[in-house]
Amino acid sequence: MRTRTTTAAALAVLALALTACGGQEEPPAGDDGGSRSAGIGAEDQDKARGAAGLPPEPSTTARYRFLEALDAIDRRISEPGTDEQAVSRGLDQCGSIKASPDDRDRLIRQTLERFALPTGLPDINTPKTGGKILDAVHEHLCPDF
Q1: Tell me, what's the pLDDT at 32?
Q2: How far apart are CA 68 and CA 86, in angstroms?
Q3: Who has greater pLDDT, 51 or 10?
Q4: What is the C-alpha end-to-end distance of the chain, expressed in Å?
Q5: Model pTM greater than 0.90?
């Protein structure tokens, strides 16, 4: 399981690094596309995410609804400035859902660990809260898993 998460994280870092290295948005006229190797297209990113057991990048609407769902559970789960981190953790949890869809107790424990509730928010570190977060992840970030 850790290998899958590590692979996904490595792919994400690689995609960001390669995108940041690209000096131009579009290749010059007449370019055959060879200069695009510095960046990874959205389709290739989605393929890499799929190979790592993760869903495609969520739409703006899906991200917003996921963050709203977390706020409805407890606003401290995704405090201002941590939205991207919450979405990233949710996407990682999607990989766990795909790997063990029938082991809800394990998924709840992983969700609590992934969202750092045991150390950061011990008063809401409960299976009930973990289940609510897990359901929000599944509904908004990876409904097809």
Answers
A1: 38
A2: 11
A3: 51
A4: 16
A5: no
pLDDT at site 25: 38
pLDDT band at 141 (very low <50, low <70, confident <90, very high): very high
Q: How far apart, in whole angstroms, are the C-alpha atoms of residue 61 and residue 55?
A: 15
Cα torsion angle, 107, 112, 118, 122, sign: negative
- What lies within 8 Å, CB to CB, of 145 at 6+ separation is 55, 94, 97, 98, 101, 138
Average pLDDT, the chain: 78
Tell me how crowded residue 54 is: count the other CB atoms within 10 A of its CB.
Answer: 25
Say if CB 97 and CB 50 are below 8 A apart: no
Which letter does DSSP use for residue 49 in this model? Answer: H
57 within 8 A of 17, measured Cβ to Cβ: no
